[in-house]
Recover the amino acids of this structure.
């Protein structure tokens, strides 16, 4: 069962006893529907107890991230998605995530992705992955003339069978 959809009502009676003073007070001040939904409860606690500096640092880290010269697209996407989960808790919208992702791509990938004008973060990821796949296919393809047009050496004997 996904944690975001987990029903916390059965554990609702015991949970507050594990919270120290201010956190316990915060828990009781939340609406019932927030206390019943794990994701909403998590957001409420993060907004209340994570410092502004930490939240600012998370946003800044995400906005300043650039794909390294030798960093694979897969690793870069994993980093963005991992941070995006934290950022989702900070309620950064899909458009901002799209901008941050595209802005951090290597220039040749960024140009291709932005020329296609993706409408969402996941569409931009798909375009970037497609671009990298095409680049890999064309760079690994052996298109040499000799491979496709192999002629026998001039001194070879041709025998008829």
């Amino acid at each position: 069962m996904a944690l975001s959809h987990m029903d916390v009502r059965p554990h609702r009676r015991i949970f507050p006893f594990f919270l120290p003073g201010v956190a316990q007070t915060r828990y009781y001040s939340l609406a019932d529907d927030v206390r019943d939904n794990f994701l909403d409860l998590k957001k409420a606690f993060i907004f209340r107890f994570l410092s502004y500096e930490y939240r600012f640092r998370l946003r800044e880290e995400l906005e300043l991230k650039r794909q390294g010269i030798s960093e694979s697209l897969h690793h870069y996407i994993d980093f963005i998605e991992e941070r995006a989960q934290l950022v989702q808790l900070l309620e950064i919208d899909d458009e901002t995530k799209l901008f941050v992702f595209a802005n951090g791509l290597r220039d040749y990938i960024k140009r291709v992705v932005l020329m296609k004008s993706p409408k969402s973060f996941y569409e931009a990821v798909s375009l970037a992955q497609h671009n990298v796949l095409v680049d890999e296919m064309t760079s690994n393809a052996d298109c040499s003339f000799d491979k496709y047009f192999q002629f026998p050496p001039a001194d070879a004997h041709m025998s008829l069978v």
Summary: The two ends are 69 Å apart (CA to CA).
